[in-house]
Amino acid sequence: MGRRDEVLAAVAPTRASARSAVVHLAGRAKGPIDPFSLAEYLASPHAAGRIVLCPAGRSLTSDIGFLREVSERALWAPPDPILAGAIEGLLGFPPPAAPDRFRDGRALLADRKTGPTATALLLEGTVTSARARALAAGDARHWIVESPRRVRVERRLMKRLRRLGVRWSALEPVTVAGVLASPLLAAARSRWKSLLPAGTPVWVRGRL
User: Fold this and answer.
1) CATH fold group of domain 4-75+174-204
2) How far apart are the C-alpha atoms of 22 and 28, rounded to whole Å?
3) Structural domain boundaries of the chain?
4) Contact 104, 91 (CB under 8 A)
5) pLDDT tens, 90-145?
6) Any residues with CB less than 8 A from the CB of 61 and at least 6 apart, and which?
7) In the chain, which residues have pLDDT < 50?
């Protein structure tokens, strides 16, 4: 294996399609590429933080749906500088924080983006469905977690939380190295580019 910051995770709807994508990605990456389904990736706390999104290419609708699901479930921005500074002061070290160095399970922080009375909730460790339901009863609607891969919340509840206005940030955000797209998906980029960070590279299957 190469250096950990050179490892990529190929994330697809299924592990089989991820393995197929690794073959197409050969030669595009400097280091190893590990295949994951989206569910496997989110369940793996030690997976690479840089990913290549690999829609299966079966239909345009399903491919865009996959990109939307990844965007909503994994591509969470880090806290803004004001919150990051507050977190550093609270924990005594700068984020991103190592998993074993959290000291506080929950802490309320001022969130300047949403107004002087708003709060952001800093969550330690794994966020389960039961924990998320309990937290949803409170007022805070900006939840900051260590990583999207530490959130174990069922899909239906995640949708409910979005309807309630919950937005997520991550101290260790997932970054997108590129998208491996079918020619049809690449041609329809205007329909899905807003789901991903600006400037995300798009690699078309079958083209070098």
Assistant:
1) Rossmann fold (3.40.50)
2) 10
3) 4-75+174-204, 81-170
4) yes
5) 665 555 543 333 333 444 555 555 554 457 899 989 999 999 999 999 999 999 99
6) none
7) 1-2, 97-107, 116-117, 208
